[in-house]
Fold this sequence. Notes:
Helix content is 71%, strand content 0%. The chain contains 44 helices and no strands.
Amino acid sequence: VDIKVLEEAVVLFYRSESTQQATAHQWLSQVQLSPQAWQFCWELMRPDKSCEVQFFGATTLHSKLLKYWHEVPKEMHEELKQKLLQAIVAFGGGPKLVLNRLCIAFSAFIVHMLEEWPTAIEDVTNTFQNQQLPNLSVNTQIWIMMEILGGIPEEANAIYTSVQRAMLRQEINKRTGFILFTIDTYLSVKCDAPGLEDEDTASMLRAVKCGGLWLKNGHPMDSCLKFAETLLKLVNKCYWSCVQGDGCMSADENELAEVCLETLSVIMIQPDAHRYPNTALVMIRMFLDSLTEIIKAEWRENNLNEDIAVGIYTLLIASIESQSRLLLTGIASDSTQHRELYTRLIEEILQCTNKPGIYPVEESCSILAMGFWYMLQDEVLSLDSDAQRSKCLEIIRPLYAHLTKVLVQKAQQPNEVSIERWSADDLETFRCYRQDISDTLMYCYDVLHENLLEIFAVLLDEGILAVRSDHMNWPKLEAVIYSMCSIAEHINVTENKVIPKLMHTLSEIPYETLNEKLLGTALETIGSYCEWFKENPPYLPQAIELLVKGLNSSMASQATLGLKELTRECQMQMKYYAEPLLKDCEQSLHGGRLKNAESVRLMYSIGRLMSMLSADKIPSCLDLMVSPCFEELQLITQNRTQSEATKIRTLFRLNMVSTLYSSLNTKGVQQENTDNIAQPVLLVMEKTMPIFRAIGEMWIDDTQIIEALCNSLKYAVTNLMNDCKPMLPDLCCLIVSIFQTKCVCPAMDIAKTCIIMFYNDPDMHSKMHQLLVEIIIYNIRHFEQIPENNFSDVSDLLESFFALNAQIVRKLSVAYSRGDIDCFKLIHFALKAIVLPESGPVKYSTQFLSHFIMQSRQFPNMTTTIIERGGQIIQTTLMCIGSLTPRTQVEVFADIFLSINKKYPQELIVWLKVLATPQFPTALVSDSEKNAFMNTIIREKVNKRIIQGQVREFSAKCRGILEKI
């Protein structure tokens, strides 16, 4: 390899545009694979080369050591070691990027040499500890040593080696004690020194990180006590030295303390930690004794050292989550010491939740404990012993009562003054945080039940008084209402004390004089308690009045959501309020204040309310509500103006109509007999089908609009069911006209619905069959125009097409027996679909094939198709299992084997002989493995689980992957 050309390629890679970078990267990657890379990597690291070239040389050396160790002759091992050490010394003064890569390369070298050089780790440590390398400062040598040692466990997990990974890890782990002792000795000396120099901090940081990396593979916890004690000393040294100065930790001190705390967490959460409960207790006590003073000093809003508080709380929570059973023992313990430790720990975590300030702007700790509160109540409630569970619940109830008050306080929104400092990201983070509070309050309910409502009742009174004294206190009342909204789904519908009080409060609040967010939360709460309103209808008028007020405010989104929930759950209870409420909805709808999404949502409530009007009142109301939609749609289609603006309006109006179609249904809600009265949706469809046809013609190339159009019709059909029969001819014409121009998925879905519903109807059978034939013809014609390797471009269409055929062949298999459907082409394109990487086409084409096979024996033409194409089906299925289909998806092919084995058992034996073909389906599976797979498939005719397991295992073997089944 020409070194000059290589250098130019490296510079091109690091300093060029993305296209050139990609080309350079591909070439450089190939060069790195060559055996010559062992030689030119040293050339590239010469002192006169640029930093980029030197870094590429070091990276190449590391890559070769990682993957191509077998290319190094044994007699060259010592020379390679010396060259590595010389390079490390040469780059001791920088660039650090190159030095780091060389250290990691040496780590990989040590891992490979452990068998040949068993004292490698000790020897390297001794070399650097005793400053045996010239021209390097003490701190630099320590930094290099820690970098090399820290890389060893990571490289052991990454290198290509003939040694089993578990054995290698076991060999590495034998040295963990030595490594921890080495690091601890170094850190202890530094901790006892009077101050921290910047160079010391960098080396200590590297040392602590090194310890954490070695501990990740596990180490007996009782052997970590001394190391943990040193780390705690170091955290305190970093913190208190800064507090005595300007009170703010430097970035280096902060990072060092943070890494110490993270390493302590690694000790506590390692896999075998549960085997050391006594040591865990000692550790937790050490943490509390050593760190609580720091927490106290930082327990204020806008504190200077928030990161260290976050790190300490994270450590405490991780410690107890990894020892959850130990915590439960402490809750109910007769031991004073154990119980006292539990109390201290819980108090600290409660303080974490109650950190002063509003998250995330003024504090960032309180979010950390949310998972802990779930874990604690979950562990208690899942106790097997009723007596122990009752005892623990009795103990934690006061804790959760206190927690409830804390959470309500933390849920308070920033007021008008403080919110000016908040960014959009802060607001979104706070929204997610409030959702976490909402979830945690539900866990509080699981512990406190009705007692939680009593707490809320007191807080509600306090919130009302706070608002009366000063309107700027609205966040306090809003937080209580939000909290009560959070537990709505848990509330018994017979509750008749606190919830009535809440509803009365919501109706009495003077929203006009308060922040609009309070109204938004109140409206959301109304919707959340829809099930309670169903059993307590006397409170509906107040709720409706509030929702109407919301419709005409900036909180219309919450109002439409609340009204949707109420009309969905309490439809019959709202009958007496339907007419006046519809008038209010109509005014809001046509008032011009609602956003498009709000108008669409409101149409759902309008449909539900309109369904309860008497039959003679519905037409006029319907005209008021939907005429503007169809008038605008008609105007757009007449003008034939296709622009982004007309597209948005068309989608908006179609979505409104869809929503109305989904919710307007008079059957089951009218007291009088409605059998002879046409459904309102049918009346609308009869008048507007020409507009739908015009929309379909005008926007046929716009999938979004065609999808919205088809959704409208689908909602109408599924809502009307048999009542839509008069409209089927027009509907079929519209669907076919769409397919004549463009095959689209939404049209396929509505066609599937119609065919399944009406195929067996004597009056509609002919039309439904013709519709099916037309759809199959148009889609096959479309598929025939797709280039062989481009079927992924129409994967969504293949998915919908075979989803339709899978359902119809299963439910209406006779449809395929009349000879006007080309079953051979259906099978042909199903086999095209199953080889695609996309999961949808694979799933539904496989379903179609298995259902087709299961039904085929009833009809001669279908039988002939399978007899002639069965071998191809089996061959393609085996190719998919062997290599074409992602291994996580191959289980679906079990259905094909089962269906063929049930209906064509003799033919299956013949078709499976394709496995005798050499290197089929791949070269990685042996003949004996293929025979075993074939015998199992032939033998098993019923148990799908067994076939799935065999398919999974065979797929793994075909890909050279060992798998436990």
